[in-house]
Design a protein that fits this description.
The chain is an alpha+beta fold and 251 residues long. It has helices spanning 29-39, 99-106, 109-118, 132-137, 150-157, 164-168, 185-197, 209-229; strands at residues 63-68, 70-71, 77-84, 90-93, 128-129, 232-233, 239-240. Strand 6 (232-233) and strand 7 form a beta hairpin. The two termini are 32 Å apart.
Length: 251
């Protein structure tokens, strides 16, 4: 999916979800579908053969927010107003809070920066993995302490997800530290919600240097960390850089 908002109408494949035994659903299309699976020996595969009902996925609850398990540049938190069921390539986010507010917080640059500090790059090409228990320990701002305009989330979620360079307005041919970030308007609007809540709020016009520097530092390091991680080593030890070198070290 190339957008943060998941629309069920955009998916051509559907999940068959049934926990009823066959003798209770005869004369239904679900029954015929199960027979079709048995005719094609789907019930004999290693994933299904040991189940009490080979076609049952168990008692599960879909989630309105799901994030990718393996991370390239950023962890994307996809959201929907309808619960989705996902495979083990994604992690489910279940919350009692308003899911629009939670999705807004999770998709900010600051939270992405925190994810990159917590994950482990132990896959080829710098791909990062972050386990479910690690995601559950990540800190986020108290949802009830901020006022989120849902329209800001809607605006950024309806367009294609762009590279971190494009999102934050960096020229990928130049070192990060030699540039000033110029985030996309909808990206800036979403990030400003958290920046303002944390006190990175300009109190003058033009903005005070200290608060502006804090925001720019989040953007610089939020871009530098994943791009340095994604540098790839070839078998002979020759380094191929997928991003230009930084002008200085980023801890």
């Amino acid at each position: 999916c190339n957008q943060l908002h998941l629309n069920p109408q955009n998916f051509s494949l559907k999940l068959f979800f049934c926990n009823q035994p066959k003798d209770k659903i005869k004369k239904t299309n679900a029954y015929n579908y199960i027979l079709f699976g048995e005719k094609n020996r789907y019930n004999s595969g290693p994933s299904c053969s040991n189940r009490e009902l080979w076609y049952s996925l168990g008692n599960r609850t879909g989630s309105k927010i799901n994030c990718n398990y393996l991370v390239n540049e950023i962890m994307r938190f996809y959201w929907s107003d309808e619960p989705f069921f996902v495979s083990d390539n994604f992690q489910e986010i279940h919350t009692l809070s308003d899911h629009h507010t939670i999705a807004s917080i999770l998709n900010t640059t600051l939270f992405s920066f925190m994810v990159n500090l917590s994950g482990r790059a132990n896959f080829g090409g710098g791909l990062m993995k972050i386990q479910t228990y690690e995601v559950s320990k990540l800190l986020l701002i108290e949802p009830n302490s901020i006022n989120v305009d849902d329209q800001i989330l809607f605006d950024i979620s309806k367009r294609p997800i762009k590279s971190i360079y494009e999102e934050l307005g960096f020229d990928k041919t130049k070192p990060i530290r030699t540039q000033k970030p110029n985030p996309l308007p909808d990206r800036k609007a979403l990030d400003d919600i958290i920046f303002d809540a944390l006190g990175f709020q300009p109190k003058a016009d033009p903005p005070l240097a200290e608060t502006q520097e804090k925001r720019e530092e989040v953007y610089a390091k939020g871009t530098a960390l994943p791009l340095r991680r994604l540098r790839v080593y070839l078998p002979k030890g020759r380094l191929v850089q997928t991003c230009p070198p930084l002008a200085e070290q980023t801890e």
